[in-house]
Structure formats: structure tokens, C-alpha cells
Amino acid sequence: MAENNSGPIEAVRGIVSGAIGFTKQVLGVILSRSDLQEEGRAQVEKASHQLDAARAEAEAESARAKAKAQESRQKAASNSSK
């Protein structure tokens, strides 16, 4: 099964992962479990990278849309000069 890494989906994954990681950190503090705190920190860091990926994918999608629009303009200009 192909993994879907579109910008919006990756952003949601990042937000959810960050919330879960933060919750693990808080529970680790409450329960005095450093392993749970560390797991939470790692998950928050992963979430940060997922959000970075979402931003990059959104920028790439925007650039592709602009390129497609320019291509359409170029074709229209080429057809009108014939």
C-alpha cells in the first residue's frame, strides 16, 4: 500500500503525534517515569519533522500549480500566434 504524504495529511499526522508525545511527557512526569518522558520527547521531535515535511510538501504543491498555470499560458500564447 502506498503511503500518502500530502501536505495536509502530513500536517494532521504531525499535530496528532505532537499531542500524543506531549501527553506522554506529562504522564511521565506525573508517574516519575523517565522512559515515558523520553518517549514523549522523541515523539514530539518526530511530530516537528512531520510538520516540516508538510510545509515543504505544501510549497512543492504550490510550485507545481504555478508551473502548470504558466504552461497553460505558454500554450495559449503559442496557439494564438498561429
What would your notes on this structure say?
- This protein has 82 residues and is mainly α.
- The chain contains two helices and no strands.
- Helices cover 87% and strands 0% of the residues.
- The protein has one domain (7-77).
- The mean pLDDT is 88.
Q: Which terms would index this structure?
A:
82 residues; mainly alpha; 87% helix; CsbD family protein
Q: Helix count, per DSSP? A: 2
Q: How many whole angstroms does the radius of gyration measure?
A: 21 Å
What profile does the largest beta sheet have? Answer: none
Calculate the terminal CA-CA distance, rounded to whole Å.
47 Å
Order of helices and strands: HH
How much beta, percentage-wise? Answer: under 5%
| Structural class by sheet pairing and helices | mainly alpha
Helix content: over 70%
* Total strand segments: 0
Uncertain stretches: none
Indicate how many domains the architecture comprises: 1
Show the helix and strand layout:
Elements: H1 7-30, H2 34-80
Helix pairs in contact: 1-2
Q: In brief, what are we looking at here?
A:
The chain is mainly α and 82 residues long. Helix content is 87%, strand content 0%. The chain has one domain.
